[in-house]
Amino acid sequence: MKQPHHPPIDGIGLTEVLGALSDPVRLSIVATLADGEPRSCGAFELPVVKSTLSHHLKVLREAGIIASRMDGTRCFLTLRPELEDRFPGLLAHVLRLAGQTSPAA
Amino acid sequence: MKQPHHPPIDGIGLTEVLGALSDPVRLSIVATLADGEPRSCGAFELPVVKSTLSHHLKVLREAGIIASRMDGTRCFLTLRPELEDRFPGLLAHVLRLAGQTSPAA
DNA sequence: TTCGATTTTCGATGAATAACGAACATAATA
DNA sequence: TATTATGTTCGTTATTCATCGAAAATCGAA
Q1: CB within 10 Å: which end of chain A, N or C, has fewer?
Q2: Any atom of strand C under 7 A from CB of B56?
Q3: Which residues of A sit within 8 Å Cβ distance of B?
Q4: Which of A21-25, A101-105, B14-18 is least confident?
Q5: Could you tell me the pLDDT band of residue A102, with boundaries at 50, 70 and 90?
C-alpha cells in the first residue's frame, strides 16, 4: 500500500498552482472535489481515458492542490486544506469564476 | 501604424487567463503594469531577450490581459480594464498573492 | 493462488511552448 | 534619403504537455 508523494506546500509556487488550474479537465476535477467529499478516480466523468486522468491527478497532486490516499485498490482524492494557508482564497475565487463562466462539470 | 489585434474578452476562457498567468516572466509583467502606468516594452527589466519578451506580450494580449497601443516606434502597454468585468477580482487576487510569496519584480 | 477491479506506469506521438539570434518592418530624426 | 530606435516576425532548437493504448502493479475476493 504505497502512498503517493505529496510535496510540501510551502515549496510550491503560485505559477505552478495557476498552471495546474489552467486546464479544463483539471479545473473540472478540482470543482468536483470542492464539496469536500472524497472521491475515487472512477467517480469522475471526463472525456479522457484512465491513464490521462491519472496524469492530470498527478499534476494536481504535485502542485499541492489535491491529496490522494490509497485504500485497497482504490484511491481517495480530496483537496489539500493547506493550500488555503499558502494562497488564501485563491481556489475559492477561481472556482467561483469557473462556476459562473462554464457549466461546471 | 498597425495596431495589434486584441481579442474580445467575452470569448476568453478562465483556463486561458490562468495559463497566461502561469509563467514567472508574464506574471512579472502584469505585476509591473498593475499600477496603471502605461509602459513601453523596453521598460521591463526581465531576463529574456527582446524577441522572447515580445512573445510573452503576445500571449498576454491574446489572453485578454493586456492591451498594446502603437505610438511611433514604441508601443504602450496597459492592463485591460474589461478583464475585471469578465473575471472580477481575479487579477487583483493573484497579484496580491504573488506580491506576498515572491519579491515581485 | 487465481481472477477481477482499480490505478499507475511506460512508450509513443503530435501539439504547444519558451528561448535565442537574425532578419525585417516601421516611424522618427538627422 | 540615410540612420537610428523600437518592436515584431521568422527559423531553429529543445522542452514540456496532453493524449492514447498496452502493460504492469496492487489489492480484495473467490
Answers
A1: N
A2: yes
A3: 13-16, 18-19, 21-24, 27, 86-90, 93-94, 97-98, 101-102
A4: A101-105
A5: low
